[in-house]
Design a protein that fits this description.
- The structure is a single chain.
- By secondary structure, the chain is α/β, with parallel strands linked by helices.
- It contains 13 helices and twelve strands.
- Strand 1, helix 3 and strand 2 form a beta-alpha-beta unit.
- The longest helix has 24 residues.
- The two termini are 16 Å apart.
């Protein structure tokens, strides 16, 4: 108690200073910075190649975000950030310098990276695997991260094409009405159904109301049949009447199959991709296929040039201490590359010194 009274006699700002020194090895002091000037460095000989595309796409996205940015072929000491899309890092590199790491396949490149990092620069790999290998080879974890590259977004994933090549019988021997129950439980936006064979009008009407795209050929056309078969993703057959001749053509074409395990289907020795007996079996198969296609759609939606540039911008704001950390890290949980792949310098524990002043010694230890 006597010691505590003596401690309380010490001025509050001094006690706060001691608590600060005791607890904090690194402090992040965000500064008000309205404008950021980014110098994107690309060698003249690289501008017409893939690295030139990276540079121009990042420039376009930064300018759309209102960031002052320009492309040059040399380090600019007046810029807030110098970012190299070239392996040739100059001796002027500093802690506000970043550089792209395309690949590391020689000891010389590893030494170049270590040399740049020793000057304070941050290397940005294209993948987690390369970043991890660099750290394992001695590159500082707080000076190397990764940002996955972008896709142009001009190529869209097409629908999964399913094919059926038989006509409808009055006794429902082909079990065609199963399709209605199946597509009530499947995301119809992911699939397109191609049918060749007579008598499908009623089923197609019901499927169209469910939102499924159907391409229909009521008459058999051998030339068109051959063209369709090789362009299918999966051939479908749900009957239990010995087998489908279309299945043999599908196997010959090398397309996937969603068919019943019966008759001469089993004698081909070709593995059925999805062996089905019931509506539930087919629904499970299509939902599994659909989930894989959803991955392509999600990839195209997230691996964009906008996201690529934004992840660089978050990193640069951190290096410049241009914003509070809670603002920079507001995208936490949306992705794991970018700033989230960099070992931060004890940021999580930092508390501004001013917030410690005036707090009781009991609550601040």
């Amino acid at each position: 108690m006597r010691l505590k009274r003596r401690i309380r006699q010490i001025p509050g700002w001094i006690r706060a200073l001691f608590r600060y020194i005791k607890r904090k090895k690194y402090m992040y002091f965000p500064k008000e910075k309205k404008d950021m000037h980014v110098n994107i460095i690309i060698a003249s000989k690289e501008k017409s190649w893939i690295l030139g595309k990276f540079a121009s796409c990042v420039l376009d996205e930064l300018q759309r975000m209102g960031v002052k940015a320009a492309i040059s072929d040399r380090f600019d000491s007046n810029a807030d950030i110098n970012h190299f899309f070239t392996p040739n890092i100059t001796d002027k590199a500093d802690r506000n310098t970043t550089f792209m790491i395309t690949h590391v396949d020689t000891a010389l490149k590893l030494e170049q990276i270590k040399n740049a990092v020793s000057k304070g620069a941050v290397g940005i790999c294209m993948s987690k695997e390369t970043r991890d290998r660099l750290i394992a080879n001695g590159v500082l974890a707080n000076r190397v991260c990764y940002i996955n590259p972008a896709q142009d977004g001009q190529i869209k994933p097409r629908k999964v094409i399913l094919g059926i090549t038989h006509r409808v019988y009055k006794d429902n021997r082909k079990r065609e009405t199963m399709l209605i129950d199946i597509f009530k439980q499947v995301n119809t936006e992911l699939f397109k159904l191609v049918i060749m064979g007579a008598g499908w009008e009623d089923v197609i009407s019901a499927l169209s109301k469910l939102g499924l795209e159907v391409e229909y050929y009521p008459e058999f056309d051998k030339e068109k049949y051959n063209e369709l078969m090789v362009n299918l993703d999966f051939y479908c057959y749900f009957g239990f009447d010995e087998g489908s001749m279309g299945y043999l053509d599908a196997v010959a074409a090398g397309v996937g199959t969603i068919v019943t395990p019966q008759g001469y289907h089993l004698d081909t020795k070709a593995e059925i991709t999805y062996s089905v007996n019931t509506v539930e079996d087919v629904v499970d198969a299509l939902n599994e296929i659909g989930a894989k296609r959803e991955q392509s759609i999600q990839f195209a939606r997230t691996w964009t040039w906008n996201a690529y540039a934004l992840k660089h911008l978050e990193l640069w704001k951190y290096l410049l201490q241009a914003e509070p950390m809670e603002s920079i890290l507001k995208t936490r949980g949306l992705y794991i590359d970018g700033i989230y792949s960099l070992l931060l310098d004890n940021i999580r524990d930092s508390i501004p010194f001013t917030t410690l002043v005036g707090r009781s010694i009991d609550s601040a230890d």
